[in-house]
Amino acid sequence: MKVLIRALVAVFLIWCLSFNTAQAADTIPDLVNALSVKGFKNTEATIGKLTETGDPAVATVLNTLSEGNLYFRKSDNQVFRAEKSGKNFKLFDPLSGNFTEELPRSAVKKIRVNNKLRRIIRAALGGLTLQSSDPTVRKRAVESVFKQADPASIKALDSAIAAETDQDIKKLMVEARAAAVLRSDLLEPEKIQAIKTLADRGDQEARGLIMSARSDSASTVKDAADEAVAQIDRSLALWGAGQNIWYGLSLGSVLLLAAIGLAITFGVMGVINMAHGEMVMIGAYTTFVVQELIRTSAPALFDYSLAIALPVAFLVAGMIGIAIERGIIRFLYGRPLETLLATWGLSLILQQTVRSIFGPTNREVGNPGWMSGAFDLGQMTITNNRLWIIVFSLLVFALLILVLKKTPFGLYMRAVTQNRKMASNMGIRTPWVDALTFGLGSGIAGIAGVALSQIDNVSPNLGQSYIIDSFMVVVFGGVGNLWGTLVGAMTLGVVNKFLEPYAGAVLGKILVLVFIILFIQKRPRGLFALKGRAVEA
Amino acid sequence: MTSLLFRGLDRYATLFLAILLGIAVLVPALNLFLPASHPLHIPNYAVQLFGKYLTYALLALSVDLVWGYCGILSLGHGAFFALGGYAMGMYLMRQIGARGVYGNPDLPDFMVFLNWQELPWYWFGFDMFPFAMLMVFLAPGVLAFIFGWFAFRSRVTGVYLSIITQAMTYALLLAFFRNDMGFGGNNGLTDFKDILGFDIQADTTRAGLFFASAVALAVCFVICRAVTRSKLGKVLVAVRDAESRARFIGYRVEHYKLFVWVLSAMMAGLAGALYVPQVGIINPGEFAPANSIELVIWVAVGGRGTLVGPIIGAVIVNFAKTWFTGSLPELWLFALGAMFVGVTLFLPKGIVGTLAHGWTALKQRQQSAQAERGGGNPPDKPPHSPAAQSNLSSLTPDHRSGGSKTVPQPAE
């Protein structure tokens, strides 16, 4: 019995196969020529037949047709692609594209198409290009087929799935097929299977398709649809949370960049540098100047402008920082409140200086090519500049840790922080270390300015918008501890972004500020306080 | 020695009060009763401007009370000022009644504009002047009490306190910018018509407000003097100079701080309430942290730890600001910045503090010269004894963090 069935199936398959190939071999040119038959209905039928062949070569013919360049020769109803050449038409074979002959206008007639036909052709083309040899074309095709979710494309999809080798595209095709199945009048098991496939895809579009299929179908399908929607909602919520975390990390990295220099000056030296934001601003303006110079003298280097701006900004901001330390701050050590006021005054002067030189308006800082653009990760969209800023902030952080822990300068710095007199006795020139530490903190702020120039407006007020946030980060994370700054920045960033959908951007920020104020009450020395038994005054 | 200095200051204080009250009477009188052509006539805008300076002076005085005498550097006093201002603004808003653009007798214009149907609960009672006056003191007072209660009990001090006061005023700035808050959002409260039935634009009302500001300043000055000269004031100075020591001796430091903090906030609120009718608008911009920091420099310029200093400082700095923004707007921020740097570096005691110090030194020299001339009749205390030194340093707050220690201290 089994043997018999197998034999029958085999015969059937062979018959199908031979029929198919025979049809394809004989009829594509015939079908193309059949397009010359008058009437939109006939054309539509022929297009349907052409599409069913699934031959990619048909796609060019259909394309030509929808563009209105398909003509037929009146003498023998042969169909050609025609190009106008003076008063005559040049005729090309529609399939191979070979030049055939040149005829006067009266000898050919255009095959007319209307909008309905164009729509059909567009759908059909999607199905046809499914088997193109170029994977990107295939991918685009399957995406458009998915959007149309036309039951007519099931057949084309089936053959495409069988032929597909790329797993990703195959998966997309299966999903597109499922979408089409939901719209078709196929049986329940098929539909339930389709719903499951779509549920695994799990995006808004799939959810919409399932919801629309749910409305008019049997109860089993309804149940499956409900379950699938619930599953999709869960996964969407997860992705939403992922996106929020991403936004939060991105905000956190900005905060980290702005605060990390402050963590050095405030945390290690105890200097309240209210002009810190202005160092960030100076870094951003340095980027602007570097880019202007590159634009005028060496435009080819534009993609490297940020890399060039980094050391320049570090040096400029660092030099200004050292000058500030030597000129003002060193007279105010041990008087933190006075330092605060003096540096605030300094920040006003720096702001006004920049305003006088560059004008009060925003300055344009360009994004190099590798910073722009975006890509999708699952259901999340990740923009390149945000990604680079996260990477960059972590790099700066790692570099700073390295400098503090592995270099002689870092050693001196820590020694001076821990016991100034003893360090001095050991021969460390503490005033120099002070100046260089302040310069380092300011230089890091300048580097932060280079990064922030890519995502924020470069204006004289750039720094002021970061200074309060930076202080919050340092105080929250714990003074004198760089890891605390990292954790503090990322936490505040993520918390801020998670509050935003519920409370709105402004209220979210207010809540974060109130949270920090309350947090300071609980742990006046921040998240990671240095342990000690010191009692001040 | 100390009592001598205080007696001396007392004389100045009386003198100062007399001058202040003289101004309070004279300026409105010269404005109202002299014809415009008279050389001594004070124009209307000047009355308004000086009235504004007086409220600033009151605000500076309130900051000096906590900073100069208790060592709490508040970078958020603008918040108390603005809250008092908003309380007054709400009263003035309710006085407009049906005279607004939309002619709604129950709702202020901005609420009509935002399609609000009824007055929010927190606006009730503000049509009554006594209630509004109560809120002028209560709103900043309660905020200061809650904030101070938590902050001082957890021993948040120094820079940390400064930073969270800044966070407080920043949070309020963001909050008051929201339209949903019901305080007029971005535009704030403005377009006032009258106060206590008097037209707010009238010369007599302006003169009256000037007089009220001067009297309020005088009263607060006397209150501050009473507080700082009492035993309580001595404890405050002790807390400023050595908080832990004061605590170890057995004083409940946080209670003293809380008291003076709330008092200062209420004074700031009063200043705001007097400020709003004179300038005719209150908006969230008053909460900006930059404003609060700027007002600290008024105190620093005048001299903190003296009561006359902040008043003089506020007037000088604001006069300079008016002049600069009028004639050299580009240079104002340079001048203000230079003032911050210069005062902290070269004039840490401020103008009044430096003068008082110089005066004391002069007196000392005279005394010692006298003693030398008199021969075998030495004064009770040699002028350069440690006791005299310590008395001096308790009057000049800048030596509190260990005299000549000018090396960096980690923030810990």
Topology:
The complex is a heterodimer of chains A (537) and B (412).
Chain A lengths: L1 H33 L5 H14 L2 H12 L2 E4 L5 E7 L2 E5 L6 E6 L3 E3 L4 H14 L6 H14 L5 H10 L3 H17 L4 H14 L2 H12 L3 H50 L7 H22 L7 H23 L8 H23 L15 E4 L2 E4 H23 L1 H11 L1 H6 L4 H23 L11 H14 L4 H22 L1 H18 L15
Antiparallel strand pairs in A: 1-2, 1-5, 2-3, 3-4, 6-7
Helix pairs in contact in A: 1-2, 2-4, 3-4, 4-5, 5-7, 6-7, 7-8, 8-9, 8-10, 9-10, 10-14, 10-17, 10-18, 10-19, 11-12, 11-13, 11-17, 12-17, 14-15, 14-17, 15-17, 18-19, 19-20
Chain B lengths: L1 H32 L10 H27 L6 H20 L12 H5 L15 H25 L4 H20 L11 E2 L3 E2 L2 E2 L3 H27 L1 H11 L1 H7 L3 H27 L1 E2 L6 H14 L5 H20 L1 H18 L3 H25 L11 H10 L17
Antiparallel strand pairs in B: 1-4, 2-3
Helix pairs in contact in B: 1-7, 2-7, 2-8, 2-10, 2-11, 2-12, 3-5, 3-10, 5-10, 7-8, 7-10, 8-9, 8-10, 11-12, 11-14, 12-13, 12-14
What structural category arises from helix and sheet content of chain A?
A: alpha+beta
Topology of chain A as a string of helices (H) and strands (E): HHHEEEEEHHHHHHHHHHEEHHHHHHH
Report how far the terminal alpha carbons of chain A are from each other. 101 Å
Average pLDDT of chain A: 81
**Which regions of chain B have little confidence, pLDDT < 50, spanning 5+ residues?**
1-8, 381-405
The helicity of chain B comes to 55-70%
